[in-house]
Amino acid sequence: MDKKDPYAALRIREFNIFLLVRFVLVFGWSMQFIVIEWQVYSLTKDPLSLGIIGLMEIIPAFTMALFAGHIVDQKEKRNLLAWCIAAFSLISMGLFLLTWPVLVSDWHSKTILYGIYALVFFGGFLRSFFGPTIFSLVALIVPKKVYPNAATWNSSTWQMASVLGPAFGGFFISWLGVHWSLCIVFGLVILALVILFQIKRKPILNPKIGEPVVESLKAGVRFVFKTKAILGAMTLDMVAVLFGGAIALLPVFAQDILKVGSEGFGVLRAAPAVGAFLTMLVTAYLPISKHAGMKLLLAIFGFGICIIVFGLSSVFWISLLALFFSGVTDGVSMVIRQTILQIKTPDHMRGRVASVNSMFVGSSNELGAFESGVTAKLMGTVTAVVFGGTMTLLTVITTGIVSPSFRKLDLTKDIEAHERED
What we know:
Layout: H1 13-44, H2 47-74, H3 77-98, H4 101-104, H5 109-141, H6 147-175, H7 177-196, H8 213-226, H9 228-243, H10 250-257, H11 261-285, H12 292-312, H13 316-344, H14 350-379, H15 381-402, H16 404-407, H17 412-421
Main location: membrane
Protein name: MFS transporter
InterPro entries: MFS_trans_sf, TM_effector
């Protein structure tokens, strides 16, 4: 297999099945998320309620993350993912029922709202297992020498689903309503569960099965904090997501500032993922592992600029372009981050490292949504978005100045070492 083959990972049958499962799941999950955002804001007309959605998910996701990583490293990955998907289907069914007019027509809006928050809370608990399980499973499907290529296609699939899920979600709200949109999500989750069983069970590579939980967790955290490339990538992304959380306020922009309705909301929500997806397709042909540290810094700096432009714009097409290019820059940073994590993490610690990553990055999506909701309440929506973009720029500049080793990070030698190992 040619190391420069842009389709190297796609020549592996189980990897294609894995991508299909991930596409269906992310499509359903992202569609569900914006439908719920729309429903919650429609019920409350309060931007803080959008932030509370994020808070309800981050509390269990963050507190369970390390323990989830320990479990993932101790268990067989295919079946564990199946259990996660099955539990996700219960959440989707619950949201479907909570938005069924026949069932909830006599309910108070606050009762419906609290029910949605409760299911989102359960979803946060579940999500603490999803990330580490998927991260660990893909490394058992593809050989090490195609990790960078697999990271590109894996991230591209995620972004493609993130493009189509929100876009279709916005249109389905208009065409079918919130209730039947969530019925479609439930069907997609069941489909993903069925497809998953086309992947064979995988060996457990952890040599310390039965290791005490505390020792296991300490080992995972120590590894992340002593590996500067991983720590730097996680920290940068955490700050960018935390302060660049304009996406969480899109219902406010769509309904009250740009006045473009649910269809425009879906298009705006999909724009960053379109940019990221196109960028990732390019990186399959033009690897970006050389001078990876500097490229990551520049990409996140560009992301911050785009968020500021979006916050200041009151013109739909300018806002759309700003979000598109925020996705372009995020696509570059995502491929670099995923490559760093796959290459620098040993097989037996993948679950725990992915869990620490979810604490840094994954949870910051929801914390960023909460931060955006709170700052929008205190400062106003536009000021909150501009503030977040500015904080992102300051963080990148600070990191570049105080961490010259990260600026010089180059992954070329690591990739070559994995190729010789295979």
